[in-house]
Structure formats: structure tokens, C-alpha cells
Specification:
It contains 15 helices and twelve strands. It has about 400 residues and is of the alpha/beta class. Helix 5 (about 140-155) crosses helix 6 and helix 8 (about 250-260) crosses helix 10 (about 335-350).
Length: about 400
Amino acid sequence: MRSAPWVFGWLAGWLCLAAHAEVRLGSDVLAARDFKELRGKRVGLIANQTSVNGRGESTIDRLRHASGVRLVTLFALEHGLDGKVAAGVEFKDSIHAASGLPVKSLYGPGPTRRPTPAMLKGLDALVYEIQDTGIRPYTYISSMGLAMEACASAGVEFIVLDRPNPLGGQRVEGPMLDPRFRSFVGQWEIPLIYGLTCGELARMINGEGWITNRCKLTVIAMQGWRRSMTWPDTRLPWNPTSPNVRSFDTAIGLPATGPVGEIGGLNIGLGSAYPFQCLTAPWLDANKMATYLNGLRLGGVKFLPVSFKAPRGAYTGSTVHGVRLHFTNGATAPLAAINYYALDAARKVGHRDLFAEAVKAGRSFAMFDKVNGTDAVRKALQAGKPAASIVAAWHSGETAFRAKRRQYLIYF
């Protein structure tokens, strides 16, 4: 039997609507439920400049004015409540000017990286609503798990208002964390790119016993988000997650260039129009670099010739040449691998072994190992292994992690 043409038109229209269904953040779902999960509770909120919904409504303001909810304390992670504090710079407790609420620093001074018992005293629930970037070295997820651990000890409920993983929920890439290299830029035994929302990751941290005691965890799930979505698919505006990550293009470039930036020898675009999206040096030929990298056919990414005067980072003040990363399919481009193909390209196009030069110069690889979560990548580079070999070594860990994370998934 042949279907009427209108059936196909209706089906196509329905599929189009489904593909572009509105993504409702956890904060919006909470509000639609009239904040029932928080009613009658004294609440602390871990927030920053990203704690807004698609209409720009502040979660701080929404909780302050929610009937039956008493918001009493704000908590700030690295970069501060307004996201303007430079990376690695500690800051003290303060008062939020707009609300008069106390702001407790979870990034210093000194060893403070988690809520203390005094900070949690009198709270019934601690709410987390922070947009992260989907990569392990970004410290927000370290802070989240440490706050969960503190809440478990204090008997305080931990509530995650879930948000999208901007890199999508399908991508799992890069080396696994070796517990010997656990640090604040690598707390959890996950790959460099882990493909979970913050709510899903919180469930995994709790369920896998990665914190001393399991906390009472509630995740307010999003509606309309699917694992195949990267940030542009959500149609949500991007709010800078930190001073250097001011756009989604920067966020997706960060895991593709950040690790190689720790080796030195390449300018990755910091301070330029394309931060974390460039692989350049004064001694590179831009066209030859682009031809070599595009010839690898990595998929989902094109390498465009670029030249500019470096405002920051390696070769400050000099004109640098190389490539800019242009992602044609952000969901499939092999981000973590690009770092090491860039080293191959520098060696074959520029005739420079940047890793060997860094060793000869006595450069420290401590942060490189912390960012990778292992010394295996460094040892592979020391042995002269090519990018393809380094990337292949990650596959078993990626596969095992995909299986382990399955029980914690909320979205499909």
C-alpha cells in the first residue's frame, strides 16, 4: 500500500521539530516544579556567571525569590562568582553586592578547595549549577565531587541542576586518569574527554565510591537534551565559562591544543581572535602545515592556514604561521588526538622535534602529566612514538570507561 504524500510531509515536519526540541535546563525544570525539591530548606548555591538559563535569568535571583526556599550562602569556584579571576589565582570570602549574601571561596586562600564544616553548618542542601567544558582538567568538576564529599560528612543533601556537556554525550577520548597523578586538574578516574553531563558525572562519582562517603544526591535532569547534541545544537547562548573560554569554539579547541601547549614550542592562539584554536610558530609554513594535517583526513575538522602577531604565549610579539582549527562536525572530530598529530606535523613540516627540544631545555612536564592524568603519554613521546600509536593506546581505557559509565547515564 502506498502512503499518501501528506504522511511524508507530516513525518518530515515532526522529525524536524524533534531535532530542534527546546532544551530545558535543570534549573528550568526545578522552577516548573515550583522548586518543590528545595521548599522548606536552607540552601547553599555553588554558582558563577554561567548559572543562568537560556533567557538570561540568574539562578541566584530565581532561588532568592522562590517561595518557601531560603537561599543563605553562595559558594564560588576557580575564577570567582563573576568568572573574571584569572586561572590559578586564589581569592577570599566576600559579600555578593546584589543580594548581600555571603560568598564562600572554594578556591583559596591556601588549601581550601572544598566546603568546610563551618561553611555547611545550618544548610539542608547544597545546590550545584555550573557550566563546565566536558574535559577532565577543567577544575569545576573536581570542586563538584569534593563538595559532594564534604556534604556527605556534614549530612547535607547535594543537588545538581543539570546542564549540557558542550562537547556532547557520545564523545569519550583520551588517556584515563592514573590515580598516581590525581590532582585538582584531574580528580576522577575518567578520560580526558568523558562524555557525561555534570549530573551524570555526579552519579558516577557517588556510585563508584570515588569519594570517602556517598552523599545524598539529587539530580534535576534536563528535558530535551540528547547525547548526540553539542552546544550549538542546544540553541542556548554561550556564557564564558572562564576568562579564556569565551565561546564554544574555544571550548572545543581547548582539549585539542591545551595539552600540547604544556610542552611548548607552539603558539595556540591565546590572546588572539582564536584562543586554543591555533597551532603556530614563526618557523612554520602555514600552507604546508595545513596540507599535511588535512592530508591525515581526521574527520570533522579542517586546518586553515593562518598568520598573526602573537599577543601572548609562545613567541609573544612575533609573527607566527600555521593553522587554525575549523570544526565541520564538532561531534566527531578527534579532539584529543590533534595535540599529537600537531607534534608530528611540526617535526615533518617544520623539522623541529618540540618534545626533544623541551627535554633539552629542562622544561618541567609536571603539568603536562597532570593534564593527561598519566605519564604514559610523556613516555611514549620520549620513545619517539608517532601520534597514531599514542592515540591507539587510549582505546582500551576508552572502551572500559564507556561500559562502566553506562549505568549512570540519564539521557540517550
